[in-house]
Amino acid sequence: MPAGHGLRSRTRDLFARPFRKKGYIPLTTYLRTFHIGDYVDIKVNGAVHKGMPHKFYHGRTGKVWNVTKRAIGVEVNKQVGNRIIKKRIHVRVEHVQPSRCTEEFRLRKLKNDELKAAAKKNGDTISTKRQPEGPKPGFMVEGATLETVTPIPYDVVNDLKGGY
Asked: At the N or C end, where does the chain have fewer CB atoms within 10 A?
């Protein structure tokens, strides 16, 4: 028989619970608060069948656009043909987790604010723009000795006899 094309086809390993992570769902999942504009990662929990997104959205990052009692609305980009569409889906809270995609940006922003405050205190002007890594500095090689290598002439007759 041919393979089926159902909603959950080919998700045997995709939706399986991880090793030693089976059983009850931690309360943190339900007590976490989401706000509109937050970035979330869609990670399907195979133990909860309600409010489960389609397998395409598993592992995608989206932006929260709606918050309801048990679910949140997530806006995810989806490539269809030659265009990218913003898809709005509602997903239960068991299937989402806060994304760390903006963590590095927020830390850099805090560090830049501290640097600007310190520079203002000293009366300096600094640039907080990220600069590309330039070329490595040049150096002189110390203690290098030259060695002349001369080739050994190839003797066909001796080679056929079995070496020198």
From this structure: N
